[in-house]
Amino acid sequence: MGTKPPKKGTKNRIDHSGLNPVQRARLQQAHADHRAYLESRLEAKPKPDLSDDETVISPSMHNAWIFFSGDKPGGTISGRRGQAETQCAQLYLCVGKMAASPDSTKAIGNNLKADAAGIMINQKTDIDKNYELRDGTVGHVTGKSAVGIKADSVRLIGREGIKLVTNVDSRGSQGQKIESYANIELIAGNDDSDMQPLVKGDNLVSALARITESISDFIETTNGFVRSQIDFNRTQQEFNQEIAVHVHPVAGPAATLPVPGLVAKGATSAIEIGIVQINQIARTINMLAMQSAEIEGFVANRMQPISGDFINSKNCFTN
User: Are residues 94 and 1 in the same domain?
Assistant: First the structure.
């Protein structure tokens, strides 16, 4: 009978803490009678702290509720109802009031931070303030209809698709004219310090295509220059060798011979320069070929819809 207090950050699978005296007496009797089913159904269920115009439905033994009231995100004087405003109806579906530490001896009002899970539907409220949300690019919305959903985990599941759509009407719930499109924001950790726009995939593909085409053109141009340099160097070496052994004919019986040292030096220099240039050109050609192959691989792997690594999502779209 009963359970030990839960450890910090955990909950016992069966938790009988927080029962009021009547519930505890029933638990003891159920335990004595070996009625495990009844024993397992007994759980703490706080009393609702209701406003004078509030109605609640909670027919089961479980900590589950439906509240009908004016805008009341917290206690009895909170929200637009607490400011005596009209046309601010609220419907709050809630399970697990007081979340991890429910207490049947306490009366508790709405608490969006402490309730385990809930859906709050409001005719007129300040939803960002209610849930303590950061501004983002949309900013804090005040005095407008809203639906808030909060739990440890929230899943939206559509058998035939999910759409997040804004601005379908020309006027809002308070009669205000809607002048511009509102954003769709994804704010992880409630941190809006570095909000950035999403990339539109097709536009990104187009931009990257232009970049890769420019790089490919540069590689082709450079490759053509290198090959023309090869032809130039070959011609220059032939010319240098001709200069090294060149002689000018003179009148008379004696012929002028090239200077022996100049011939040897010219030939050696031409050979050494040629080897260095050939090696450098070969490395450049190989590097250009590798870069060209990398560009082709990038285009094939990242920019083609048939590729498994295509940068666009196959199923998620944004405007």
Answer: no
Q: Are 85 and 67 in contact (CB under 8 A)?
A: no
Residue 120 amino acid letter:
M
Asked whether residue 273 falls in the same domain as residue 211, the answer is yes
17 plus 51 within the same structural domain: no
| Segment-wise mean pLDDT, segments of 10 residues, the chain, 319 residues | 57 73 74 60 85 88 93 91 94 93 88 94 96 91 96 94 87 87 86 84 83 81 75 69 62 56 54 68 78 81 79 68
What lies within 8 Å, CB to CB, of 212 at 6+ separation is: 295, 298, 299, 303
Residues 82 and 4 in one domain: no
Same domain, 50 and 152: yes
Residue 65 forms beta bridges with which residues? 94
Do the beta carbons of residue 178 and residue 167 sit within 8 Å? yes
Question: Are residues 24 and 70 part of one domain?
Answer: no
**How do residues 62-84 score in pLDDT, each as one tens digit?**
899 999 999 999 988 899 999 99
Q: Which helix (H) or strand (E) holds 104?
A: none
DSSP 123: E
If asked whether residues 92 and 152 sit together in one domain, one would say yes
Does residue 182 fall inside a structural domain?
no
**pLDDT (0 to 100) of residue 1:** 45
pTM, two decimals, is 0.68
How do 107-108 and 47-48 pair as beta strands? parallel
